[in-house]
């Protein structure tokens, strides 16, 4: 075996060896398309090396022409592979240019088989024998085919594409790849295309050595891919370490942790603390979904929050919900979760941490119960203070009932009785009885210990209900009441009894504050209005002495009072109730004298007041 045979055989063997290695990589990881494209390129270069060795050993022009014709097939495979390798490896952005190169090379291949003997020559007249590394090799002498310009145009387009891909990689900050791959690829194309052009056009007779040029490209490609494999192996080692650390943190965490499938909700991993919270074993939990554990009333809330994270409307979700333990008990938990996505951005798994907050919820419920008890005591106390007013309110219908009953007795003594008059008397009795019953029922509801459910309520109606209770007290104290209720006021979502209590406290405090004022100057004004369409505002203005500027900021603090007989819980309870309704309450002094309490509550959606009175006074 001579030196030429050894060099070209080693070139082919090297390319085939590298192709086999990277083909195995692709078979193990089918998404590693760059390894498959490299294998195709290396095989093509090995085949080209075989054709070149055959050309150099040819002894007849016809044999040389046939071999040269078929050598265009591995060249076509090589160009296709290199174009799309650059597209992936250097993230080339001009796809249309890649398709142009492929189209030009395909056209050259078609023309190659359309012309005789091939794309490069119209005719090969003879072979020239010349020495190469101590051996005699063949070089063609013939008439150049002008259509060979199509192949040379393809080489030029390929060069432009390689340079453009290198520039794109450079701009993306991947300068090492741009220099190594882009530089070597561009240089190789120039050398290979130049050598082929010099040979075909007869400028410099010589044998083909394209395979040696592309061997350099294959070696650089293999080196770069190997570096990527080494980096991938290093990252895989780091990933394994991170996975081990995560597993340890997951299993040993002091809070519950769980993973679940993003679509089915089936639990795929749970830790010991989560098992303790739910009362199930790990094996039992892995056969369940998180919805199986969740209280039925909380499932819909969970679904909405998780769906928002799936659609990237939020990064994480937080919720406080109930789990049903294995023993049937209820446990309150705080869940913080997120979605882990794969490299394509698709949801891979749900990951959540779970904390048992049952004791906290029990403490909150106990505190809320204490607040309700205190509010109830405050209502009873308020009614005690308004006993005279309530007696006056009840006295009027009871007196009417008595008077009408006596009038009825007199009518019955007439002979014959006046049935029309008697019917009118009975109608008045029924009306007064209903009025007294409504007053008693309203007081009964107000003093009832249980709170009513939250529902859309009309603030204007609540103001009028409270004023019915307090109107007699205002008359007794010589206070002039006036109202300015905005019509079509949005309703608010709240507890009617609690909101009555707030207004009753505020108005009663204002009336008591005016006790020392001149009777002709005692005025109390209640107004309702909208604030931006989403808030409902109630203001209570009095003509009393107002708030002491030095203690104004303490008005809503528990046990703070300026009255000798007060306990200082009225306004504190009012603030607690309003804040529980997601509203605000504040106190201020008016410029014209007196104090103002302002209450602001969020409006309920799609609801308006049915009270259309714009004002009134007593």
What does it look like?
The strands form three sheets. Strands 8, 9, 10, 11, 12, 13, 14 and 15 form an eight-stranded mixed beta sheet that branches. A five-stranded antiparallel beta sheet has the order 4-3-7-6-5, with helices on both faces. The mean pLDDT is 82. The radius of gyration is 47 Å and the shape is elongated. The chain has helices at 3-28, 33-56, 61-89, 95-114, 148-171, 175-200, 210-252, 272-278, 282-285, 290-293, 299-310, 358-385, 387-413, 419-447, 459-477, 496-513, 570-580, and strands spanning 121-132, 135-144, 256-260, 267-270, 316-324, 330-341, 347-356, 455-457, 480-485, 490-494, 523-531, 535-542, 584-589, 595-608, 616-617. Helix 1 (3-28) runs antiparallel to helix 2. Strand 5 and strand 6 (330-341) form a beta hairpin. The chain contains 17 helices and 15 strands.
List its salient traits.
17 helices; five-stranded antiparallel β-sheet; elongated; alpha+beta; eight-stranded mixed β-sheet; 618 residues
